[in-house]
User: Fold this.
Amino acid sequence: MPIHDLDCLSVARRRKTLCTVHAVRASERETWVALAGEPAVTFAESCGFVARVGQLVLVPGPEGKVQALLGLPEQEAPRDPFVFGRLALDLPEGDWTVQVPKDVARDDVILGFCLGAYRYSLKTGGSPAEGPRLVVTAAERKGLAAQMARSICFARDLINTPANLLGPSELAREAKAALRPLGAEVEVIKGAALDEAYPLLAHVGNGSERAPRVVLARWSGTHAGKDAPLISLVGKGVCFDSGGYDIKPSGGMLRMKKDMGGAATVLALAHLVMAQDLPIKLELRLGCVENSVSGHAMRPLDVIRSRAGLTVEIGNTDAEGRLVLSDLLHEAGESQPDLLVDVATLTGAARVALGPDLPALFCNNDSTAMLFAEAAEYEADPLWRLPLWQGYAGWLKSPVADLNNIASRPMAGAITAGLFLEHFVKPDQRWVHIDSYAWNDSSRPGRPEGGDTPGIRALFRVIRSLCGTNRAEKS
Assistant:
C-alpha cells in the first residue's frame, strides 16, 4: 500500500476562497474580537460558543466569506495536537488557514489536521466526499509534521487491513516496499533459514498455512559517523491471533487483525527516521506470523530450544507474542545497540491496568526510562512505566524447561511477560519494552476508530535526543 500523499494539505493559495480558523482560548475573549470582529463573536456566543477545548463554530467573515473559531486548551495545559483533528472532521470543503497563538506549534496544527483527515475504507463505488484542505507552505508539506502524519497513517492502514489481505508475507512485502526506497538494506527470511535462526518464532508461525517471515532491515543516515548511535527496533507482527489450541472466544478474536500493531508501529517509526535522515544507525526486525489452529500448530506443553539456548515450555499457546519477540531480541543484542526497543500488542493485563490509551513501558535502566517519560510528556504522547518486578520471576518456572511462557499465577500478566522477555536481553543492554493496544475503540478528533500507534511520537523524540537533533523548542 502506498505511503499517504496527504491530499488534505494544499500548497496552492486560492486567495479569493481562502477561509480562516481562529484558534482561541476561553480566557481571552478580547482576542476573539480582535481576530474575528465583534459581530462574529456575538454570533458565535449566540450559538453557545465558549471556546471549550475542541469546540468549533462557523461565523460570518469579511467579504461574505465564512470563518471559524476553535477552542484551545489554556496556555498552562499540556499540548494537544489532536484538537486540530476536529477541523478535518467538521469544516466545510475548501481551503483553510489556521491562526494560532504564538505558543502553539505550527507542527501540531499540521499533524492534528492530517490525522483527523485519515480514513480507511474498502468500499466500492462513488467518489469519496471532498473535505477541507489545510493550506501549508511547500516546505511544511515536506516537513516533520507532515512526514510524521504519513508514517502514522501508513501504520494505521496496515493495522486496519483485514487479515485475509495482510498475512505474514504481505506484511514483509509492505516493509520492504516502504524502506528500500529510503536506502535501507532489507532481507526477508523464510523457510529453513527461519526455522534454524528463530526457533521460537517458527514454532508459532509454522502452525499456519501462511508461513512466517522475518524482516531484517539495516540503515545508516547520510550524516551518521562511526560513533553514531545504533538503535535497534523489534516489532511483534502477528497478523491474526486465534489463540492457537488455547483458542480465544469469538469476541476475543474480533480485533485480532491488530495483533501486528507493534510491527506496524516500529515500521512506521523506522520509515520516519529514514525519511528525516537522522544521523544514526538503525536496525529493524519484524516477526511476521499467524497464530493458527492446525495439525502442525504448537501444542500446550511443547518444549522448544530458543535461539539463546534456553528451553521454553509452552504453558499457553495464546501467549505467542513473547515467543515471537524472544529470538528477535536475542539476535538484536548481538549487534550491541545503544538502545533496544520492542513494541508489541502483548497482554490484556496491560489494558486492564492502564486502559487503551496508555501503553505500558518496561525498562531495565532508570535514566533511559526517565528519558522516555520526559519525551512522552513533551509530546503529549503518554507512556506509563510498570516495574520489571523480580519478585515475580519465579512464577515463570517450569518443571521440565528453563522457562514457561506463561506465569503460574493469574496476576501481573504484563509484568511477567516483560520478565519473560528480559531473559533474552543481555543484562548490560539498555532495553525498553512497550506493551501497546494499537487501537482506538471509538472515534475522537485525530484518532478515528481503528488501528493506531500510541507512543510513536515519544519514541521519535527519544531517538532524536540520542543523536542530538532536538532543536531548542518551547516547553
User: Anything to note?
Assistant: The chain has a mean pLDDT of 95. Residues 164 and 299 are 24 Å apart (CA to CA). The chain has 16 helices and 19 strands. The radius of gyration is 24 Å.
